[in-house]
Fold this protein.
Amino acid sequence: MNIIETVDITKKYGDFTANNAINLAVQEGEIKAIVGENGAGKTTLMNMLYGLISPTSGKILVKGKEVCFSSPLDAINAGLGMVHQHFKLVPSLTICENILLGIEILKSGKLGKTPFIDMKKEFESVQEVVDKFKFDLNVRDKVENISIGQRQRVEIMKMLYRNVDILILDEPTAVLTPQEVDDLIVNLKELKAQGKTIIVITHKLGEVMELSDSVTIIKRGKVVGEVKTKDTTEKELAQMMVGRDVVLSVQKEAEDNSDKEVIYKLENVSTKNITGKEVLSDINLEVHKGEILGIAGVEGNGQSELLKVLTGIMTTTKGKVSLKDKDITNWWPADIRSAGVGMIHEDRYAQGLCREMSINENIIAGYHNNTDVCRHGFLNFGSISKKRDRLVKDYDIRVADPEGEVSQMSGGNAQKLIIAREFDSNPQVLIACQPTRGVDVGSIEFIHNKIIELSRQGVGILLISSELSEIMSLSDRIAVMYKGKIIGIVNAKDASTTQIGLLMAGITDKGEKVS
Amino acid sequence: MNFQRILYDMLSYSAPIILCVLGGNYAHKANVLNISLEGMLLMGAFSSVLFVMISGNIFLGCIIGILATLILGVVFSVMCVTKKGNPIIAGLAINLLASAISAFVLKAMGLANLNVNNIVDVAGLKINIPIIKDIPFIGGVISGHPLITYVSFIGIFIMWLIMYRTKFGVYVRVTGENEDAATSVGIKTNRIKYIAIMIGAFCCALAGINLALEKMALFTNNMSAGIGFIAIAAIFCGKGKPVRSSVYAIVFGLAQSLATNLNISAGPASGLFNTLPYFMIIGILAVVSVIQLKNNRIRGFKNE
Amino acid sequence: MKKRNTFVMSLFNSLLPVLSAFIIGAIIILLIGENPMTTYWIMLKYTLFDWGGFLKTLHYASPLILTSLAIAITFKANIFNMGVEGQMLGGAFVSCILGFSLNGLSTPIHILICITAGILTGMLFAIVPAILKAYFKVNEMVVTLMLNYAIIEILRVLAQTIFRDPSSGYVSTPAVLPSAMFKRLGGTSLTLFTLITIIVFAVMYTVMKKSRLGYEIKAIGRNPEFAEASGMNVRKKIIYMMLISGALSGLAGAGFMMSEKFKYTLDFSGNPGLGWDGMLISLLGSHNPIGILIAAILYSALKTGSDSIGIFANVPKEIVFVIQGMIILFLSIKFLDERTKLFANFKTRFIPKRTPEEAD
């Protein structure tokens, strides 16, 4: 019996369709995996199931009955529990207090319930349920003192304690170590044995194969595949997940640049995040003059950190970054820029542009010390406007109001603005991260052509993207990142989508799974 | 140097600080930056003395005084919680308003201060605890304080109970630490914040009564003299924990006591003791930040 | 089009609180049996519509302009320097000390020394919170707020002990020497200090609107991540801003000391204090130089007008403080922002967090 069913469920945000007529069916007692790239719409779908957002149209049926959730509490009451990717735990409270949040057990006095919590009863009650599911937690521990894997188990327990029959887990293994992943898989299988239904949202295909009974593949808001796990392979899933139906018209002949000089080099670059976890391990890369080195990989494998390190926003724990023969390791952004490195950041509105400032003000950002716009500390607005007009023309940037703010521009044009700014500074090396994310097709083609043009002028380009097709059509060589390491470097000429897809999933050419 | 006097004064000066601290802890734990404690304290002092003068009855005066302070608390809550205003500016406004309103009313009544010594017998309000008062040295320290002073110390335990052993206390802490987690399980965080602020107002009202009515039966302009801000310093130093911040409050009370008592020997320079709370909080904030940033490799500031 | 829209909105956001406060003030005045309209009229008459009174208003507006600029420059960058009051008092105190201790100097030199000392003192008091914020990300609001009270206390002790004027009945330092006083111009209340203020104002205006630093401050206030990624060395800029803020505050204190007060007393700064007045004015003027100028003059009229109320009307002048408090209270919330229905026809301009093409 289908315990959960969605019928043509759709979610639109203005003109943008996040979920497009999705029909999903989950059988009772199975473990279903929902896979797709970042931005495919998986989380939107789950948020609707859980009552965090309401659908634009379509129906949700739970146990055969149509439901309409207005809040997570409704979902929990209907037997649906969600374990979020970002834990909703309170660090200074104990595991027990977190699990019982909102449903505390109070002491009873002679006149009825007192406002005081019955700590003893709470501990007993929760420990009982924990042991029942064999979760190995000491409920008296404070959440701030336990590991991430344990915290996730607490999140799961929160739902199990409330007697949910269906568990939805959103990217559960994103923050776990390999060992913790194995433990989680064991726990989930145990839950299944006890009759629970489990839905897992993930992009990690290896785990999908190990854990699930059936898989639904979502791409750009639509369901593009529905298979039984035992009938498919990782290769097949990878292909369904990353292939694009829009054929890119820009193709470049991958060139061999190994004879040209190395102008940008990374040696053993490593860094840790604030919790002490190593997010980049011994990155070794070389970019030759005029070469486009693509860095492929599923998002979350260290690309953001790599970009932050190379643009001076994050420091390294070890390693060296050199521009020609200059050591620019851990230089501040302003100095890196003046040394000749152009930067296209990952999130254009967070780091690349300031929405509330005018186009003029954005076009000089990062280069506002240059003598053509700034003399003796004063900005020359006349020359800035001239520059803006020139760039708007050269880069075909559509602006409704040249004096207006960047917030009035579309995403594609905003991105072109950044490209114009960076390219115009005549860099020796360009670092571009997700340069065409959220950009319309016409602008994508334009941007790709510009990147190729730049490489022909001898600029070395480091292209970081989670869009495999973009990497494949532009790069001369492709490096694949997995879990903070470079798992393999191939020549774009010889590489196939499948091969790279496998590398992205952590499987080396020899067929080994990298842990 | 009269040690007994110093310790007695320490308890006496600490009491209003402790009360403000105990009340202000809730807003702090609920992640509401409430700097209006000073204003609430002043309003409590002013309105209690005023209404004792008008009504001639201590209890009635106190109750209306507490109500007036609660109104101030409601105003602050509406501005900050419901309307999501800037709590620093709103808090500042409350402080200014309390000072302005009290000064205005005094002027309008044509008085330089409010003196209710004819209704309230300050000496009579002091409680001389039997048996304890006869213990050598300690007796003179502990016995002989007015009621609310004792209430403040007992309050430390009560507040600890509420904060850590009741449902409400849990909800307050959850609202402050992870509001998302609270709303995801259905806790009404706005309501929790309101109650937290009102508890603060109530405690500050009590502190005001202790400061003005019980100790001197007198109100003069701006007699709160920064006690509210010292309480804020104690709250920050103690991270909103009832026991810990009360300890800081007592330390600051000791500083004040030293300031007054050493006046004779050290001269007005003893007033420097009064700066202790402020430097302590700056020092502690600095140390905490240094520790937090130990492993941080990210430069720059994030959009808050 | 959008610029005009925001300007109208800012204007409303500043006017509504003021109007509301005055209305409530009027109610209070009615309650004590006086006529609010005549009271308000008296206030305006002697401060804006009388030539001597107007100049007096300008004179008092000088330190206010400086303190509000001090606030504005940091608030624009989303940094809250709550310590302007303390920095100002520090500047005033030090300039006073030098004012009465240095003998035999000619007036221009003496004034120059005192002003410089005042500015440096203000900067000194701003540097600690600046470094704590820039390098350790400590909340500058709390630090500057606490430092305020510490400074006030220390200055009080100093005024009562080492620097006390024994001949005075109340706590006060000796008065500064005549060589350290700004002379009144032409029988009016104005001094050179006002001229200095106007020059400083013009400089600050240019800096905030036309200089690279002003641009960077704007960027840091709107999007600090972007600012850092654009190489704006946010840390250094934070320190610069705090130092400038401290300098302006110190100048305000020193100037006020040498043009009006001439000695340091415990109520030097008035009620609630020039620093807090500065905050009010900066909020009213939306942290923009022109807005501040207008708000400062009007506010100064309000304050000097309170004295007239005391003299010419039966209303306690403290009513002005009450109105001040309410203005600040109402300024803490934005009455109108992008979401109000009054601007429904501009709804299409409402900025969604993401543009349509972007994925979820």
In short: The radius of gyration of chain C is 22 Å. Residues 338-360 of chain C have pLDDT under 50 and may be disordered.
